[in-house]
Amino acid sequence: MMSRWQPALPDAPVAGGRVLVFARQRFFLRGDDMLHPATVLRALPLRSCQVLGYFDGEPIQLAELAELPAVAEGEWVGLRQFMRDDIDPDLFRLLCYGAQIGTWLGQHRFCGSCGGPMAAAPGERAMRCERCDLQHYPRLSPCMITLVTRADEVLLARSSRHAPGMYSTLAGFVEPGETVEQCVVREVFEEVGVQVSELRYMGSQNWPFPHALMLGFHAEYVGGEIVPQPEEIEDARWFAIDRLPALPGRRSIARYLIDRYVAARLGEPLPSMPDW
């Protein structure tokens, strides 16, 4: 089935269309609809505006704001809130894309090489320095996420960023000079002090917080006792698959990795990757 959301180049022609409003690299303006009439641009303190693409065939622009102005109608909502809502997957893809483009625009107003002002490059999604001609493209940060297992047990951890009582899989950013597989082994040992092997790639997920690409793995425990990394991991422990704690939402690849392993151990149908 074709997605209702289709990206396009930022200088695609626009006639009318709708606007997605993004402020302070974090919040969307939600009213009766997430997509506002183009007339909303007249009343907003714009810092930048770019075409994103088309939703249901209608042009969509992103209005990026530096501040969070008071609004007479609607409310400002963080992107994570939409992960918990029963939102249309195609609209959620648009929000994820818009959040990453809006964050990139806000962080690339000036050149990191010479300090000159940046402007949108014609014909592609890029910001070009008007002084030294250096171009910056939307950022993407590769990150591994892995479920460590030991027979009918899974190793889950929690950090201060998690909701109270919630445990999840281990994750970490790929460092320069290492493969994703090397990152899995290193991050697991750094975060919980155990060794793993038999890595299997399970899939990937766009993770717009703010611009990660989550590469999902399953890893088998080899040895070592759990020692949580100070200031990073509050708690980590083995959980039996029939006595799991509160888990991440079903839109997340972390939940998919857990649910898939549990289903496989129980001989049940395997779940599908989250559809967004």
Automatic annotation (TrEMBL):
It holds the Pfam family Zn_ribbon_NUD. One of its GO terms (molecular function) is hydrolase activity. Divalent metal cations. Mg(2+) or Mn(2+). InterPro entries: NAD-cap_RNA_hydrolase_NudC, NudC-like_C, Nudix_hydrolase, NUDIX_hydrolase-like_dom_sf, NUDIX_hydrolase_CS, NUDIX_hydrolase_dom, RNA_Hydrolase_NudC, Znr_NADH_PPase. Keywords: Hydrolase, Magnesium, Manganese, Metal-binding, NAD, Zinc. CDD domains: NUDIX_NADH_pyrophosphatase_Nudt13. A divalent metal cation 3 binds at residues 187, 191, 232. It comes from the Bacteria. A divalent metal cation 2 binds at residue 187. Residues 138-261 form the Nudix hydrolase domain. It catalyses: NAD(+) + H2O = beta-nicotinamide D-ribonucleotide + AMP + 2 H(+); NADH + H2O = reduced beta-nicotinamide D-ribonucleotide + AMP + 2 H(+); a 5'-end NAD(+)-phospho-ribonucleoside in mRNA + H2O = a 5'-end phospho-adenosine-phospho-ribonucleoside in mRNA + beta-nicotinamide D-ribonucleotide + 2 H(+). Substrate binds at residues 80, 124, 137, 254. Its cofactor is Mg(2+); Mn(2+); Zn(2+). Zn(2+) binds at residues 111, 114, 129, 132. A motif (Nudix box) lies at residues 172-193. A divalent metal cation 1 binds at residues 171, 191, 232. Homodimer. Belongs to the Nudix hydrolase family. NudC subfamily. mRNA decapping enzyme that specifically removes the nicotinamide adenine dinucleotide (NAD) cap from a subset of mRNAs by hydrolyzing the diphosphate linkage to produce nicotinamide mononucleotide (NMN) and 5' monophosphate mRNA. The NAD-cap is present at the 5'-end of some mRNAs and stabilizes RNA against 5'-processing. Has preference for mRNAs with a 5'-end purine. Catalyzes the hydrolysis of a broad range of dinucleotide pyrophosphates. HAMAP family: Nudix_NudC (MF_00297). PANTHER family: NAD-CAPPED RNA HYDROLASE NUDT12, NUDIX HYDROLASE, NUDC SUBFAMILY. This is NAD-capped RNA hydrolase NudC. The gene is nudC.
